Amino acid sequence: MKDKSEPLLSLRTFLAEAGDVRDVRGAHWDLEIGAIAELSYRMPQPPALLFDDITGYPSGRVLTGSTGSPRRLGLTLRLGADHTDESLVAALRGKPAQWAAAAKDFPIRPVTDAPLLANEITGEAINLLDFPVPRWHEHDGGRFIGTGCLVVTSDPETGVHNGGCYRMEVQDDGRSATVAAVPGKHGAQHIAAWFARHGRAPVTVSFGHDPLLLALGGTEVPLGVSELEYAGAVAGERVPVVLGPDTGLPIPAGSELTVEGWLRPGLTREEGPFGEWTGYYSGARRADLCLEITRLYHRDDPILLGAPPGRPPHDYSYMRTVLKSAMIHDELVSTGVPGIVKAWAHEAGGGRLFVGVAIEQKYAGHARQVGHLTAQLPAAAYMNRYVVVVDADIDPADLDQLVWAISTRTDPAEDIEVQRRTRGSRLDPMLPGGATPFNSRAVIDACRPWERLASFPRVAESDPAYLAEVRARWAGVLG
Length: 479
Prior knowledge:
Blueprint: H1 11-18, E1 21-25, H2 32-41, E2 48-52, E3 61-64, H3 70-76, H4 85-92, H5 95-102, E4 109-110, E5 119-122, E6 144-146, E7 150-154, E8 161-164, E9 168-171, E10 176-178, H6 186-198, E11 201-206, H7 211-217, H8 227-235, E12 240-243, E13 250-252, E14 257-263, E15 268-271, E16 286-298, E17 303-305, H9 317-334, E18 340-345, E19 354-359, H10 366-376, E20 386-391, H11 399-409, H12 412-415, E21 416-423, E22 438-445, H13 464-473, H14 475-478
Parallel strand pairs: 1-2, 3-17, 4-12, 19-20, 20-22
Antiparallel strand pairs: 2-3, 5-16, 6-9, 7-8, 7-11, 9-10, 10-16, 11-14, 12-13, 14-16, 15-16, 18-19, 21-22
Helix pairs in contact: 4-9, 7-8
């Protein structure tokens, strides 16, 4: 039952409802938390882990794996707990557009009282290392407090807020942190606009909250739609916020630990490398904007929401796969192209790099049309590498079936087309240092040739209905 004393989007409410959360006591902040989390992601049913009694810290906790199962992600997205991977994607289809449209009906609700106000720290007393910030990976350049965070910025003209999930490395012995806002993303656009108009940019950051804010902060919410209002649409309730007294920007009232402050064009620190979602470290240390922290609030014994990336599967690769699969399917259908059966953004590609789409072929050129559209959809365009289009008898979520279709239904010289100078990322391990972040992507037509649909060799497998009968009759043998 929901604790009515907890604000909406409280991480503690989520933990009380999640069920499959394991307590881990006595782990060390330096690599051990990250290694335990990494091993947990590879379990058949990955649990969430709540680290407590962290070595060297009398208080402060860290949560990992918050969205790594159908149950926990279903609860996060308010779609229910009783789901499989496929039923969760099906339940999510159509929802992002509905939530975006409804966001305006859920404006943030400023409040003056919240549990996070229990402790307020200002000036020289601010020290992020008073909390058990992990060093997640062996070759990380430092301790990253921002992995599951929500960085709030605003448009200086319209006032519309944006919430993004950007990596943040602790700097200056805990007094500040770099904010690696991704170029081209809405938060980076806001920061640039503030710099141009006012010479500095206000920022607030939440480091512990309902993982719904993690999910939205790492997803392409439409420009001009506040992630906090979008979260209200998902939850069906206006999100209570504390307005930062220095910046005026909102802070989720359900947050565990928050800061506010300013970014300035000349205020930078060296940051990185960091083990990123591609599965590789992100290159050498480089200068990034550093947050001048003016104020810090935290609850007693606060919980940091950790979401360390790495080689998939990682902390949020499952979440991204589910969200992207539903969003890509919806966007394909919205183009008006017929015959879309299923889309799947594979976890092995971090939910972005490798996408499969199944279709019912309707006309000559249909498969190529779907492939090229998919590669440039808003939900799929960022750092996509491969799109594979298959017939409806192939499950695009099954990598074995996809590889079989590629192996038996393509002529490499005829069925692989390449798009060039497309939207890449500076996180791309294939991008040479300092190069402009373009990439290329392959569209693989792994459908049976249109002109041979009637004569293409028949698949050598039994009728599915007959197989179901045999499985039931011989359950003792087949399990």
